[in-house]
Amino acid sequence: MVTIRPRRARTTPAMRRLMREVHLHPARLILPAFVADGICEPTAIASMPGVLQHTLDSIRALASDCAATGLGGIMLFGVPRREEKDAQGSIGWDEQGILNRALAGVRSEVGDDLVVMADTCLDEFTDHGHCGVLDERGRIDNDRTVDCYVRLAQSQAAAGAHMVGPSGMMDGQVAAIRAGLDAQGDTDVSILAYSAKYASAFFGPFREAVASSLQGDRRTYQQDPANRREGVREALLDIDQGADAVMVKPAGYYLDVLADVAEISPVPVAAYQVSGEYAMVEAAAANGWIDREAVITESLTAIMRAGADMVLSYWALEAARQL
Ligand code: PBG
Predict the structure, then answer these.
(1) CA distance 85 to 99
(2) In what helix (H) or strand (E) does residue 114 lie, and over which residues does it extend?
(3) Ligand 1 pocket, 126 CB below 6 A?
(4) How many CB atoms lie within 10 A of CB 146?
(5) Ligand 1: which of 123, 194, 207, 303 to mutate, most ligand atoms within 8 Å of CB?
(6) What mean pLDDT comes out for the span 141-161?
(7) Rg of the chain in Å (alpha carbons)
(8) Which of 273, 270, 262 is closest to 244 using CA atoms?
(9) pLDDT grade, residue 208 (50/70/90)?
(10) What are 86's strand-pairing partners?
């Protein structure tokens, strides 16, 4: 019998490039970025070396770089002043709140050259740090929270977001936001639904990045990391409710969920390579234990291979520049 030789596909760099199943491309990368109120210059985040809390000026410059590099989008997170936080997170939907001001600035900077996205969640804005509002017994009130998300999304659309990203894992949030956007005439603003979002310890560094006030955990709303089927269920619900794209988060440790969702989804699928995935690689690389650039490329490629159409990554701009 003749030997079957798959190695023929690996003989030269050109052959490998031709035979490659997935290619990273700047248009498929989205940069998550933080904008903080009350800082005079961009400020380092200790647990995410290389990532900054931006000022209103520096975020515009960053967005302009993203557009020039051909990135798919930029996803903005707001960090308000501590004294602005309240139980509802109302500074989130205030026109003068940091996130909405940043959205307006970025949108006027990049116009339609880059998809401008907003995190649509309360946790950065509440004094208790939860993604929702609490009832008198301290439990998350799902439906009152969804009402707040609608106001948030409406204010973000008004500020200039092309796409809102509800990330709070409340039931019914996508349908309510869709209706709220349509009601104010923002029928063209899309929804990137954080559909399968897990109660992950890999979000640790992000909590520093947004100066989170959270005590406790998010296990009554974010998914149990042990659950695979449930990821598909959550994605299907969001698709039914009108999500324009769905997301799996974290990415690298949830490739099974990502592959499942990619298999069934009629809309594009995003994956979010989160702060902990970033921090671990940066820390190992700083110690000289791994080849930083190679690991970044491999991690992004693995996420694409599992079925992502787009990847949110703190390395998005750097990776896109290398392509
Ligand atoms: C919630 C939100 C979180 C992240 C993105 N959106 C944090 C959380 O759920 O606690 C985490 C992102 C990351 O870790 O990089 N608004």
Answers:
(1) 13
(2) none
(3) no
(4) 22
(5) 123
(6) 98
(7) 20
(8) 270
(9) confident
(10) 126
Alpha-carbon distance 242 to 235, whole Å?
11
Has residue 215 got a pLDDT over 90? no
Q: How far apart are CA 273 and CA 76, in angstroms?
A: 15
How far is residue 149's CA from residue 171's CA, in Å, rounded to a whole number? 12
pLDDT, one tens digit per residue, over 55-65 is 999 999 999 99
Asked if residue 213 lies in contact with residue 126, where contact means CB atoms within 8 angstroms, the answer is yes
φ/ψ (deg, to 5) at 249: -155, 135
Measure 236 CA to ligand 1 centroid, in angstroms.
21
Residue whose structure tokens are 């809309």: 267
As a whole number of angstroms, the distance between CA 255 and CA 248 comes to 9
Contact between 316 and 31 (Cβ < 8 Å)? yes
Q: Is 197 a catalytic residue?
A: yes
- The tokens of 120 are what? 């649509």
Tokens of 156: 């973000």
Q: What is the DSSP string of 169-228?
A: --TTHHHHHHHHHHHTT-TT-EEEEEEEEB--GGGHHHHHHTT----S--TTTSBPTT-S
Ligand 1 near 121 CB (within 6 A):
yes
The reply to whether ligand 1 has any atom less than 6 angstroms from the CB of 123 is yes
Q: Which residues pair with 234 in a beta bridge?
A: none
**Given the residues 62, 197, 247, 252, the one annotated as active site:** 197
Which residues, other chains included, contact 198 with Cβ-Cβ below 8 Å and sequence gap of 6+? 222, 223, 224, 225, 249, 250, 254
Active site residue 85: no
Mean pLDDT, range 300-312, rounded to an integer: 98
User: Distance (Å, rounded) from C-alpha 227 to C-alpha 180?
Assistant: 31
- Helix 292-305 with 255-264: angle, nearest 10 deg: 40
Please tell me which residue in 103, 241, 249, 261 is annotated as part of the active site.
249
> Can you tell me the distance from the alpha carbon of 118 to that of 137, in angstroms, rounded to the nearest whole number?
30
Tell me which residue of 38, 37, 115, 108 sits closest to 70, measured CA to CA. Answer: 115
